[in-house]
Design brief:
about 270 residues, about 35% helix, five-stranded mixed β-sheet, two-stranded antiparallel ribbon, about 20% strand, 3 domains, alpha/beta, 9 strands, Nucleotidyltransferase, domain 5, 9 helices
């Protein structure tokens, strides 16, 4: 492979600036003169950003732009490498932690003492179009599905998991994906004694699982009521109505919703 490294003056050069030095810190790095780990990561980012429908078209565009020349066989073979996949995960996590540290001054919840001791995340699924050579199921290609979380204190994005579409499964429901993950993954390296809150859309509702996560790992979920569910209020938590933080009209309904211990599907 021959390559023309991006300069810090180009848009792409500025984009990958935070990656500087991260590859060399990874446990799964390895010396490769044909396609270095750093070049492999950068090429992968370019592929993600490109609008080309296939890997071959992407390589042709790289060749035409003069940035790099990667043999087709080498490009596709390295995508199968388990070591490089582990390297990619390491770099992604290192970048996540680095960004969190840099963005700590932007915490919008810092003034709310009631949330001290909580990490707060918003989560959701995301799709991108199927690749040209993706496997068809029932004669049709389905988009690739991922699940992400955003740290609401630092606005830092993290990849949580890839959807399980093994067998005949075409998509994976959010709740199923979350239930596949262990407690440590969901806690996202939160230290012992610190609690974790997830804000998820209506697809994340599984109240028995919420109960298990809360008592087994200090993980709390916040979501909205679905139309086919009936709220049964078992008790209400008392709160100081005169406290300025409770003057928002939505506090009343929230104080009730968070005390729900039983829900039933409408028949």
């Amino acid at each position: 492979m021959t390559t023309r490294p991006p300069t810090s003056k180009t848009v792409f050069g500025k984009l990958i600036q935070p990656l500087t030095g991260l590859v060399q810190q990874c446990n799964h790095k390895r010396k490769c003169n044909t396609l270095t780990d750093q070049e492999w990561i950068e090429t992968g980012l370019l592929r993600t950003l490109s609008q080309e429908p296939s890997g071959r078209a992407f390589l042709q565009k790289l060749f035409d732009s003069g940035r790099s020349i990667v043999k087709r066989s080498l490009f596709f073979e390295t995508l199968k490498s388990k070591r490089r996949l582990k390297l990619c995960r390491e770099v992604s996590l290192s970048l996540y932690e680095k960004t969190k540290i840099n963005n700590r001054q932007t915490d919008p919840f810092e003034r709310l003492a009631e949330l001290d001791g909580y990490d707060i995340y918003a989560g959701d699924g995301h799709y991108h179009a199927a690749a040209v050579h993706d496997e068809k199921k029932s004669g049709k290609k389905y988009p690739t599905q991922h699940f992400y979380t955003v740290d609401l204190r630092t606005h830092t994005l993290r990849h949580l998991t890839l959807a399980d579409t093994s067998g005949t499964r075409k998509r994976e429901h959010d709740t199923r994906a979350l239930k596949r993950l262990d407690i440590e993954t969901l806690r996202q390296s939160a230290p012992k004694g610190r609690k974790v809150i997830y804000v998820w859309d209506k697809a994340g509702i599984d109240f028995l699982q919420w109960f298990k996560w809360k008592h087994a790992g200090g993980i709390y979920f916040v979501s909205r009521e679905k139309k086919n569910m009936e709220l049964m209020v078992m008790a209400e938590l008392g709160y100081d109505k005169k406290d300025p933080i409770n003057t928002n009209p939505g506090v009343r309904s929230c104080s009730i919703t968070f005390t729900v211990v039983s829900w039933a599907h409408r028949k």
